[in-house]
Protein backbone atom coordinates (compact mmCIF):
# COMPACT_ATOMS: atom_id res chain seq x y z
CA UNK A 1 0.00 0.00 0.00
CA UNK A 2 2.91 2.36 0.70
CA UNK A 3 4.14 1.79 -2.86
CA UNK A 4 0.67 2.63 -4.20
CA UNK A 5 0.59 5.89 -2.19
CA UNK A 6 4.06 6.82 -3.41
CA UNK A 7 3.02 6.17 -7.04
CA UNK A 8 -0.15 8.28 -6.62
CA UNK A 9 1.97 11.10 -5.24
CA UNK A 10 4.54 10.93 -8.05
CA UNK A 11 1.91 10.75 -10.80
CA UNK A 12 0.03 13.67 -9.27
CA UNK A 13 3.12 15.87 -9.02
CA UNK A 14 4.03 15.07 -12.64
CA UNK A 15 0.50 15.90 -13.86
CA UNK A 16 0.50 19.17 -11.90
CA UNK A 17 3.85 20.21 -13.33
CA UNK A 18 2.55 19.58 -16.86
CA UNK A 19 -0.68 21.61 -16.42
CA UNK A 20 -0.79 24.44 -18.97
CA UNK A 21 -3.41 26.73 -17.47
CA UNK A 22 -5.57 27.29 -14.41
CA UNK A 23 -8.56 25.43 -15.83
CA UNK A 24 -6.54 22.24 -16.32
CA UNK A 25 -5.11 22.68 -12.83
CA UNK A 26 -8.60 22.91 -11.31
CA UNK A 27 -9.61 19.69 -13.07
CA UNK A 28 -6.52 18.01 -11.59
CA UNK A 29 -7.37 19.24 -8.08
CA UNK A 30 -10.80 17.66 -8.26
CA UNK A 31 -9.44 14.42 -9.72
CA UNK A 32 -6.53 14.12 -7.27
CA UNK A 33 -8.09 15.41 -4.04
CA UNK A 34 -11.86 15.17 -4.53
CA UNK A 35 -14.21 12.81 -2.69
CA UNK A 36 -13.92 10.21 -5.45
CA UNK A 37 -10.15 10.46 -5.87
CA UNK A 38 -7.88 7.46 -5.29
CA UNK A 39 -5.99 9.19 -2.48
CA UNK A 40 -9.23 9.98 -0.65
CA UNK A 41 -10.20 6.33 -1.05
CA UNK A 42 -6.90 5.24 0.53
CA UNK A 43 -7.47 7.53 3.52
CA UNK A 44 -11.00 6.23 3.99
CA UNK A 45 -9.83 2.59 3.86
CA UNK A 46 -7.08 2.88 6.48
CA UNK A 47 -9.37 1.49 9.18
CA UNK A 48 -9.68 -1.74 7.22
CA UNK A 49 -5.89 -2.31 7.08
CA UNK A 50 -4.00 -4.49 9.55
CA UNK A 51 -3.05 -2.59 12.69
CA UNK A 52 0.66 -2.56 11.87
CA UNK A 53 -0.01 -0.87 8.46
CA UNK A 54 -2.49 1.78 9.58
CA UNK A 55 0.07 4.19 10.97
CA UNK A 56 2.63 4.13 8.13
CA UNK A 57 0.00 4.18 5.38
CA UNK A 58 -2.01 6.96 7.03
CA UNK A 59 1.11 9.05 7.53
CA UNK A 60 2.25 8.52 3.92
CA UNK A 61 -1.25 9.33 2.57
CA UNK A 62 -1.48 12.56 4.58
CA UNK A 63 2.02 13.60 3.44
CA UNK A 64 1.03 12.85 -0.18
CA UNK A 65 -2.13 14.94 0.20
CA UNK A 66 -0.17 17.86 1.67
CA UNK A 67 2.48 17.59 -1.06
CA UNK A 68 -0.18 17.55 -3.79
CA UNK A 69 -1.93 20.59 -2.27
CA UNK A 70 1.40 22.45 -2.08
CA UNK A 71 2.23 21.52 -5.67
CA UNK A 72 -1.18 22.71 -6.82
CA UNK A 73 -0.77 26.07 -5.03
CA UNK A 74 2.74 26.59 -6.35
CA UNK A 75 1.74 25.70 -9.94
CA UNK A 76 -1.32 27.95 -9.77
CA UNK A 77 0.81 30.88 -8.61
CA UNK A 78 3.24 30.26 -11.42
CA UNK A 79 0.50 30.05 -14.03
CA UNK A 80 -1.21 33.21 -12.79
CA UNK A 81 2.08 35.09 -12.87
CA UNK A 82 2.76 33.98 -16.44
CA UNK A 83 -0.75 34.92 -17.56
CA UNK A 84 -0.36 38.34 -15.96
CA UNK A 85 2.94 38.93 -17.72
CA UNK A 86 1.39 37.86 -21.01
CA UNK A 87 -1.54 40.24 -20.55
CA UNK A 88 0.79 43.07 -19.63
CA UNK A 89 2.83 42.40 -22.75
CA UNK A 90 -0.26 42.24 -24.97
CA UNK A 91 -1.90 45.28 -23.42
CA UNK A 92 1.23 47.39 -23.23
CA UNK A 93 0.59 51.10 -23.82
CA UNK A 94 3.23 53.31 -25.33
CA UNK A 95 2.63 56.52 -23.39
CA UNK A 96 4.70 58.47 -25.93
CA UNK A 97 2.05 57.92 -28.62
CA UNK A 98 -0.81 60.40 -29.06
CA UNK A 99 -3.93 59.55 -27.12
CA UNK A 100 -6.14 59.71 -30.23
CA UNK A 101 -5.36 57.85 -33.41
CA UNK A 102 -4.14 60.34 -36.05
CA UNK A 103 -6.60 61.25 -38.80
CA UNK A 104 -5.63 60.00 -42.24
CA UNK A 105 -4.22 62.88 -44.32
CA UNK A 106 -6.47 64.30 -47.00
CA UNK A 107 -5.65 65.19 -50.58
CA UNK A 108 -6.54 67.76 -53.21
CA UNK A 109 -9.94 67.42 -54.86
CA UNK A 110 -9.74 66.02 -58.38
CA UNK A 111 -10.93 69.35 -59.85
CA UNK A 112 -8.11 71.17 -58.06
CA UNK A 113 -5.61 68.55 -59.22
CA UNK A 114 -6.78 68.95 -62.83
CA UNK A 115 -6.77 72.76 -62.59
CA UNK A 116 -3.16 72.76 -61.36
CA UNK A 117 -2.17 70.31 -64.08
CA UNK A 118 -3.62 72.63 -66.73
CA UNK A 119 -1.92 75.63 -65.16
CA UNK A 120 1.43 73.80 -65.15
CA UNK A 121 1.08 72.97 -68.85
CA UNK A 122 0.54 76.59 -69.85
CA UNK A 123 3.09 78.01 -67.43
CA UNK A 124 5.53 75.68 -69.18
CA UNK A 125 4.49 77.32 -72.47
CA UNK A 126 5.26 80.80 -71.12
CA UNK A 127 1.84 81.91 -69.86
CA UNK A 128 1.07 83.72 -66.61
CA UNK A 129 -1.78 82.59 -64.33
CA UNK A 130 -4.31 85.29 -63.38
CA UNK A 131 -7.47 85.27 -61.29
CA UNK A 132 -10.46 87.56 -61.43
CA UNK A 133 -13.67 88.42 -59.53
CA UNK A 134 -16.56 85.98 -59.60
CA UNK A 135 -19.07 88.84 -59.27
CA UNK A 136 -18.52 90.79 -62.46
CA UNK A 137 -19.79 93.87 -64.25
CA UNK A 138 -22.00 93.34 -67.28
CA UNK A 139 -19.46 95.44 -69.19
CA UNK A 140 -16.59 92.98 -68.70
CA UNK A 141 -18.73 89.84 -68.85
CA UNK A 142 -20.68 90.77 -71.99
CA UNK A 143 -20.29 94.20 -73.56
CA UNK A 144 -16.49 94.31 -73.98
CA UNK A 145 -16.53 90.71 -75.20
CA UNK A 146 -18.71 91.57 -78.18
CA UNK A 147 -22.03 90.46 -76.64
CA UNK A 148 -24.25 93.39 -77.66
CA UNK A 149 -27.53 94.22 -75.88
CA UNK A 150 -30.15 91.63 -76.74
CA UNK A 151 -27.63 88.81 -77.06
CA UNK A 152 -29.21 85.51 -75.86
CA UNK A 153 -26.44 84.96 -73.27
CA UNK A 154 -27.66 88.06 -71.42
CA UNK A 155 -31.13 86.60 -70.84
CA UNK A 156 -32.15 85.87 -67.25
CA UNK A 157 -32.75 82.20 -68.02
CA UNK A 158 -29.05 81.85 -68.86
CA UNK A 159 -27.37 84.23 -66.40
CA UNK A 160 -27.46 84.89 -62.63
CA UNK A 161 -27.89 88.62 -62.04
CA UNK A 162 -26.87 90.13 -58.70
CA UNK A 163 -29.10 92.54 -56.77
CA UNK A 164 -27.03 95.76 -56.51
CA UNK A 165 -28.44 96.36 -53.03
CA UNK A 166 -26.29 93.46 -51.78
CA UNK A 167 -23.02 94.92 -53.14
CA UNK A 168 -20.45 96.83 -51.06
CA UNK A 169 -20.47 100.60 -51.21
CA UNK A 170 -18.22 102.05 -53.89
CA UNK A 171 -19.09 99.58 -56.64
CA UNK A 172 -19.85 101.45 -59.88
CA UNK A 173 -20.48 100.46 -63.47
CA UNK A 174 -18.44 101.40 -66.55
CA UNK A 175 -20.09 104.83 -66.53
CA UNK A 176 -19.03 105.51 -62.95
CA UNK A 177 -22.59 105.15 -61.69
CA UNK A 178 -24.06 102.72 -59.14
CA UNK A 179 -24.92 99.47 -60.93
CA UNK A 180 -28.46 98.98 -62.12
CA UNK A 181 -30.48 95.76 -61.82
CA UNK A 182 -28.75 94.21 -64.87
CA UNK A 183 -25.26 95.65 -64.46
CA UNK A 184 -23.79 92.98 -62.17
CA UNK A 185 -23.70 89.22 -62.74
CA UNK A 186 -22.11 86.06 -61.49
CA UNK A 187 -19.59 85.67 -64.27
CA UNK A 188 -20.62 83.18 -66.92
CA UNK A 189 -17.01 82.55 -68.01
CA UNK A 190 -13.52 83.61 -66.97
CA UNK A 191 -13.21 85.56 -70.24
CA UNK A 192 -13.82 88.96 -68.56
CA UNK A 193 -10.20 88.77 -67.42
CA UNK A 194 -9.20 89.13 -71.10
CA UNK A 195 -10.35 92.73 -70.94
CA UNK A 196 -9.09 93.36 -67.41
CA UNK A 197 -5.65 91.92 -68.28
CA UNK A 198 -5.35 94.00 -71.44
CA UNK A 199 -6.45 97.12 -69.56
CA UNK A 200 -3.61 96.50 -67.10
CA UNK A 201 -0.91 95.64 -69.67
CA UNK A 202 -0.16 96.43 -73.27
CA UNK A 203 0.81 93.78 -75.81
CA UNK A 204 2.33 91.24 -75.93
CA UNK A 205 0.35 89.31 -73.35
CA UNK A 206 0.09 85.57 -72.62
CA UNK A 207 -2.21 84.62 -69.72
CA UNK A 208 -4.47 81.82 -68.54
CA UNK A 209 -7.33 82.48 -66.13
CA UNK A 210 -8.74 79.58 -64.08
CA UNK A 211 -11.76 80.03 -61.87
CA UNK A 212 -15.36 79.28 -60.98
CA UNK A 213 -18.19 80.38 -63.28
CA UNK A 214 -21.99 80.25 -63.08
CA UNK A 215 -24.76 79.43 -65.56
CA UNK A 216 -28.36 78.30 -65.26
CA UNK A 217 -27.71 74.67 -66.29
CA UNK A 218 -28.19 71.46 -64.33
CA UNK A 219 -27.95 67.90 -65.68
CA UNK A 220 -25.45 65.03 -65.94
CA UNK A 221 -23.01 67.15 -67.95
CA UNK A 222 -23.88 70.67 -66.70
CA UNK A 223 -24.07 72.26 -63.26
CA UNK A 224 -24.97 75.81 -62.17
CA UNK A 225 -21.42 76.24 -60.91
CA UNK A 226 -18.36 74.82 -62.66
CA UNK A 227 -14.70 75.59 -63.33
CA UNK A 228 -13.12 77.00 -66.46
CA UNK A 229 -9.71 78.01 -67.77
CA UNK A 230 -9.56 80.93 -70.22
CA UNK A 231 -6.46 81.57 -72.27
CA UNK A 232 -5.35 84.70 -74.13
CA UNK A 233 -2.29 85.19 -76.31
CA UNK A 234 -1.67 88.52 -78.09
CA UNK A 235 1.53 89.42 -79.90
CA UNK A 236 3.08 90.32 -83.26
CA UNK A 237 2.26 87.92 -86.06
CA UNK A 238 0.21 85.47 -83.96
CA UNK A 239 -1.95 83.37 -86.26
CA UNK A 240 -4.43 80.50 -86.22
CA UNK A 241 -1.49 78.16 -86.81
CA UNK A 242 -0.01 79.28 -83.47
CA UNK A 243 -3.34 78.53 -81.80
CA UNK A 244 -3.42 75.05 -83.34
CA UNK A 245 0.14 74.28 -82.28
CA UNK A 246 -0.39 75.57 -78.74
CA UNK A 247 -3.54 73.55 -78.16
CA UNK A 248 -2.07 70.38 -79.69
CA UNK A 249 0.90 70.65 -77.33
CA UNK A 250 -1.48 71.17 -74.39
CA UNK A 251 -3.66 68.23 -75.43
CA UNK A 252 -0.66 65.93 -75.62
CA UNK A 253 0.55 67.08 -72.21
CA UNK A 254 -2.89 66.48 -70.68
CA UNK A 255 -4.02 63.33 -72.47
CA UNK A 256 -0.83 61.62 -73.66
CA UNK A 257 1.80 62.12 -76.38
CA UNK A 258 -0.08 59.94 -78.88
CA UNK A 259 -3.07 62.29 -78.97
CA UNK A 260 -3.90 64.27 -82.12
CA UNK A 261 -6.08 67.38 -82.44
CA UNK A 262 -8.24 68.90 -85.13
CA UNK A 263 -9.98 72.25 -85.56
CA UNK A 264 -13.55 72.59 -86.82
CA UNK A 265 -15.39 75.84 -87.66
CA UNK A 266 -17.56 77.15 -84.85
CA UNK A 267 -18.95 80.44 -83.55
CA UNK A 268 -18.17 82.49 -80.44
CA UNK A 269 -19.02 86.20 -80.12
CA UNK A 270 -15.52 87.34 -79.12
CA UNK A 271 -13.46 85.34 -81.65
CA UNK A 272 -13.35 85.48 -85.47
CA UNK A 273 -12.73 82.97 -86.92
CA UNK A 274 -13.86 80.57 -84.18
CA UNK A 275 -13.04 76.89 -83.93
CA UNK A 276 -13.99 73.82 -81.96
CA UNK A 277 -10.99 71.79 -80.86
CA UNK A 278 -11.28 67.99 -80.80
CA UNK A 279 -8.80 65.41 -79.54
CA UNK A 280 -8.42 61.89 -80.88
CA UNK A 281 -10.43 59.40 -78.81
CA UNK A 282 -8.67 57.69 -75.91
CA UNK A 283 -10.74 54.49 -76.13
CA UNK A 284 -10.53 53.69 -79.83
CA UNK A 285 -7.38 55.62 -80.75
CA UNK A 286 -9.29 57.69 -83.29
CA UNK A 287 -10.75 54.80 -85.32
CA UNK A 288 -14.28 54.99 -83.97
CA UNK A 289 -14.30 51.24 -83.27
CA UNK A 290 -13.25 49.21 -80.26
CA UNK A 291 -11.05 46.11 -80.44
CA UNK A 292 -14.10 43.84 -80.71
CA UNK A 293 -15.33 45.77 -83.76
CA UNK A 294 -18.18 47.50 -81.94
CA UNK A 295 -18.90 51.21 -82.19
CA UNK A 296 -17.08 53.30 -79.60
CA UNK A 297 -19.69 54.97 -77.39
CA UNK A 298 -17.21 57.49 -75.94
CA UNK A 299 -16.66 59.28 -79.25
CA UNK A 300 -19.94 58.04 -80.78
CA UNK A 301 -17.99 56.33 -83.54
CA UNK A 302 -16.36 59.52 -84.84
CA UNK A 303 -12.89 58.91 -83.39
CA UNK A 304 -12.83 62.47 -81.98
CA UNK A 305 -13.89 64.12 -78.69
CA UNK A 306 -14.61 67.83 -78.27
CA UNK A 307 -12.48 69.39 -75.52
CA UNK A 308 -12.72 73.20 -75.90
CA UNK A 309 -13.61 76.24 -77.98
CA UNK A 310 -11.16 78.80 -79.34
CA UNK A 311 -10.45 81.28 -82.07
CA UNK A 312 -8.70 84.49 -83.10
CA UNK A 313 -9.69 87.47 -80.95
CA UNK A 314 -12.34 89.53 -82.73
CA UNK A 315 -11.07 93.06 -83.61
CA UNK A 316 -14.16 94.47 -81.90
CA UNK A 317 -12.78 93.20 -78.58
CA UNK A 318 -9.49 95.00 -79.15
CA UNK A 319 -11.54 98.14 -79.79
CA UNK A 320 -12.49 98.25 -76.10
CA UNK A 321 -8.80 98.38 -75.06
CA UNK A 322 -7.49 100.50 -77.91
CA UNK A 323 -6.12 103.05 -75.46
CA UNK A 324 -3.82 100.41 -73.96
CA UNK A 325 -2.09 99.83 -77.31
CA UNK A 326 -4.36 97.19 -78.84
CA UNK A 327 -5.09 98.66 -82.28
CA UNK A 328 -7.97 96.61 -83.76
CA UNK A 329 -6.53 97.04 -87.26
CA UNK A 330 -3.07 95.67 -86.51
CA UNK A 331 -3.25 93.62 -83.28
CA UNK A 332 -3.61 89.85 -83.51
CA UNK A 333 -4.11 87.17 -80.91
CA UNK A 334 -6.09 84.10 -79.98
CA UNK A 335 -8.25 83.01 -77.07
CA UNK A 336 -9.50 79.64 -75.84
CA UNK A 337 -11.61 78.30 -73.00
CA UNK A 338 -11.98 74.83 -71.53
CA UNK A 339 -14.09 73.34 -68.74
CA UNK A 340 -11.92 71.83 -66.02
CA UNK A 341 -14.60 69.30 -65.06
CA UNK A 342 -14.84 68.13 -68.68
CA UNK A 343 -11.08 67.60 -68.86
CA UNK A 344 -11.18 65.65 -65.58
CA UNK A 345 -14.14 63.54 -66.78
CA UNK A 346 -12.37 62.63 -70.01
CA UNK A 347 -9.01 61.89 -68.35
CA UNK A 348 -10.48 59.68 -65.63
CA UNK A 349 -13.59 58.18 -67.25
CA UNK A 350 -16.13 59.83 -64.92
CA UNK A 351 -19.61 59.61 -66.48
CA UNK A 352 -21.53 62.17 -64.43
CA UNK A 353 -20.41 65.72 -63.68
CA UNK A 354 -22.43 65.80 -60.46
CA UNK A 355 -20.14 63.23 -58.83
CA UNK A 356 -17.56 65.97 -58.37
CA UNK A 357 -19.90 67.82 -56.00
CA UNK A 358 -21.52 64.95 -54.06
CA UNK A 359 -18.48 64.61 -51.74
CA UNK A 360 -18.60 60.82 -51.82
CA UNK A 361 -15.19 59.90 -50.42
CA UNK A 362 -15.39 56.49 -52.10
CA UNK A 363 -15.26 58.24 -55.47
CA UNK A 364 -12.91 61.07 -54.53
CA UNK A 365 -10.53 58.76 -52.65
CA UNK A 366 -9.61 57.02 -55.91
CA UNK A 367 -7.67 60.12 -56.96
CA UNK A 368 -5.49 60.71 -53.89
3D structure, described in words:
The chain is built from eleven helices and nine strands. The chain is an alpha+beta fold and 368 residues long. It folds into two domains: 89 residues, no CATH class; 206 residues, Bira Bifunctional Protein, Domain 2 (BirA Bifunctional Protein, domain 2). The radius of gyration is 43 Å and the shape is rod-shaped.
Quick description:
The protein has 368 residues and is an alpha+beta fold.
- Count of distinct structural domains: 2
| Strand element count | 9
CATH architecture type of the largest domain = 2-Layer Sandwich
The CATH class of the largest domain turns out to be: Alpha Beta
Q: If you consult CATH, what is the topology of the largest domain?
A: BirA Bifunctional Protein, domain 2
Q: What fraction of residues sit in β-strands?
A: 15-25%
Low-confidence stretches: none
Order of helices and strands: HHHHHEEHEHEEHEEEHEHH
CATH superfamily name of the largest domain?
Bira Bifunctional Protein, Domain 2
**Mind summarizing the main beta sheet?**
7 strands, mixed
Helix % is 25-40%
- Give the distance, in angstroms, between the N- and C-terminal Cα atoms: 81 Å
Shape from CA axes?
Answer: rod-shaped
Radius of gyration: 43 Å
**Structural category:** alpha+beta
Number of helices: 11
Amino acid sequence: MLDEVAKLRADAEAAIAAAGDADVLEELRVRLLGRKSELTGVLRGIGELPAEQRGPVGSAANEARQAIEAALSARLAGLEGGELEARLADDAIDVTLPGVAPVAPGHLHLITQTRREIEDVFVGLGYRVLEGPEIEHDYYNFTALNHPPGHPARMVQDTFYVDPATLPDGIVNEEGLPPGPRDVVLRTHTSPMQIRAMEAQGPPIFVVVPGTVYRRDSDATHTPMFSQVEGLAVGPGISLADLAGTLEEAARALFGPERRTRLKPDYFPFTEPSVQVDVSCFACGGTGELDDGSRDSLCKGTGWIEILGAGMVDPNVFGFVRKRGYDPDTTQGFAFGMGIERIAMLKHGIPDLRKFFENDVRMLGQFS
